[in-house]
Specification:
The protein has 255 residues and is α/β, with parallel strands linked by helices. It has two domains: 3-119, Rossmann fold (3-Layer(aba) Sandwich), CATH 3.40.50; 130-246, Winged helix-like DNA-binding domain superfamily/Winged helix DNA-binding domain (Arc Repressor Mutant, subunit A, Orthogonal Bundle). 38% of the residues lie in helices and 21% in strands. It is built from eight helices and 14 strands. The protein has helices at residues 11-23, 34-43, 58-67, 83-91, 104-119, 156-166, 175-183, 188-205, and strands at residues 3-7, 27-30, 46-52, 73-78, 96-99, 130-133, 136-139, 144-147, 150-151, 173-174, 215-218, 222-225, 240-241, 245-246. The protein has a five-stranded parallel sheet, with helices on both faces. Strands 6-7-8-9 form a four-stranded antiparallel sheet, covered by helices on one side. Helix 1 (11-23) packs across helix 5, helix 2 crosses helix 7 (175-183) and helix 6 (156-166) packs across helix 8. The protein starts with a strand and ends in a 9-residue tail after the last strand.
């Protein structure tokens, strides 16, 4: 099932976007805030994300660039759009802009058009399914990880951590964001667990976990998956063996 994910604070515009999405045949989910939107993006088959951007929402405009990518389109909802705001959010990565003056029919048509564009996005590497860095490859669709062509066995939550970092390769993923993706909300207890999972993943990916090459710490902020030059030669995909088993081990049962 394809979803339209709505992260809009303005109540009138939020309800209008929800009604418009349903009017063109999509299931619609509403996120409570940006963190909830990021969490739902990892859990749902989102085709179109509609996120509100206000005149002074510098953080949200930057967030658009992070949300753009994968196989979903991003629409910026601007309750009181001005030309300058529209230009800026489009430059920051939005596929389209909607505002409070849009009719229900117009909103539905814009959502439908954005979904059609998203359906044409290339798959695998260009759509962010295959993430390659150095000798490491993460297949976000198959939930497999290989290094030097050999499978790396990760638990469900270990893979979710690596997947969240791979989706933003080269960029810092904050502690709060990672905790929200893995456990649903940030907390001090989850912060301790996050450190433990980082150590576990490093022990499986790094030659020397005390001097990591891939999973880097950004002190006081979070973690980052390093964007390293690819090794020479074509990367080898994890292959299926036997009765549908995957040589690049699937994420195991949740811890």
């Amino acid at each position: 099932m394809s979803f339209v994910l709505v992260a809009v604070r303005d109540e009138r515009l939020r309800h209008r976007v929800i009604d418009a999405g349903r009017s063109v045949g999509f299931a619609v989910r509403a996120a409570t805030d940006e963190v909830d939107a990021l969490r739902l993006l990892h859990r749902l088959a989102v085709t179109v994300l509609v996120i509100e951007v206000g005149d002074d929402d510098v953080q949200r405009r930057r967030l658009l660039g992070l949300l753009r990518g994968g196989t979903h389109a991003v629409m910026a909802a601007v309750p009181a759009a001005t030309s300058d705001v529209v230009v800026e959010v489009l430059r920051q990565g939005a596929d389209a802009v909607v505002d409070g003056r849009s009719t229900l029919e117009e909103l539905g048509a814009r959502i439908d058009a954005a979904a059609r564009r998203a359906a044409r996005y290339p798959s695998d590497v260009l759509a962010g399914r295959l993430i390659r860095t150095g000798e490491l490859m993460v297949d976000r669709g198959e939930h497999t990880v290989t290094r030097c062509g050999r499978p790396v066995s990760l638990s469900h939550r270990e893979f979710r951590l690596l997947d969240a970092l791979a989706a933003r390769i080269g960029l810092v993923a904050t502690h709060n964001y990672l905790e929200s993706v893995i456990w649903g909300e940030p907390s001090e207890a989850h912060r301790q667990l996050l450190r433990a999972y980082v150590r576990k993943v490093r022990s499986k990916l790094e030659d020397d976990p005390s001097r990591p090459r891939y999973l880097l710490s950004e002190w006081g902020r979070g973690y980052r998956l390093a964007d390293l030059p690819l090794d020479t030669g074509p990367p080898r995909r994890a292959v299926r063996t036997g009765a549908g088993a995957v040589a690049g081990t699937r994420a195991a049962a949740a811890l």
